From TrEMBL:
It is an enzyme of class 3 (hydrolase). Belongs to the RnpA family. It comes from the Bacteria. It comes from Methylocella tundrae. RNaseP catalyzes the removal of the 5'-leader sequence from pre-tRNA to produce the mature 5'-terminus. It can also cleave other RNA substrates such as 4.5S RNA. The protein component plays an auxiliary but essential role in vivo by binding to the 5'-leader sequence and broadening the substrate specificity of the ribozyme. This is Ribonuclease P protein component. Residues 130-160 are annotated as: Disordered. Residues 134-147 have a biased composition (Polar residues).
Length: 160
């Protein structure tokens, strides 16, 4: 883990493939946003923990998503600007080099105070890096789907 200075603007995610890869990684739900994290493309084959000390690791990148369910463009842009500024000005973000982070905004991101949003961002990054997040896992078939159908018993006492 590495702390980055608050004045440096973080690198941005811009390609759809990077956003989709982050969606398959770790996930943490905070009040104002959902945070997704994954290793950058090409690093997962080599193993992120085994990056050569001689070659610099790529800096972490951030992506921001605000869906149309939130509101019109003016509101979405205001929320996106707040999230970008929270990432840019946070004191010490506990992020890893070679990782991509995506913030998916909620309407509460506009209602939260700015210091509270920054604290929530630092807390969520710390939790996702500590491995205390709920990683997205494929859902297995439930036992009720494989069992016999459970309907109302008919006249003979058996399910219809």
């Amino acid at each position: 883990m590495q702390d980055f200075p608050p004045s440096a603007a973080p690198q941005r995610l811009k390609r759809r493939a990077d956003f989709l890869r982050a969606a398959k990684g770790k996930r943490f739900h905070a009040r104002g946003f959902t945070l997704q994290a994954a290793t950058q493309f090409g690093l997962e084959q080599r193993g992120v923990d085994r990056i050569d000390l001689g070659s610099p690791a790529p800096p972490p990148r951030f992506g921001f998503t605000v869906t149309k369910k939130i509101g019109k463009a003016v509101l979405r842009n205001r929320i996106r600007r707040r999230l970008k500024e929270a990432v840019r000005t946070a004191e010490a973000l506990p992020v890893r080099p070679g990782h991509d982070y995506v913030l998916i905004a909620r309407i509460e991101a506009l209602r939260l105070g700015f210091p509270a949003m920054q604290a929530e961002l630092v807390r969520s990054l710390g939790r996702i890096e500590a491995g205390k997040s709920k990683a997205q896992t494929p859902r297995s078939q439930s036992t009720s789907a494989t069992a016999a159908p459970q309907g109302k018993p008919g006249r003979n006492g058996r399910p219809d």
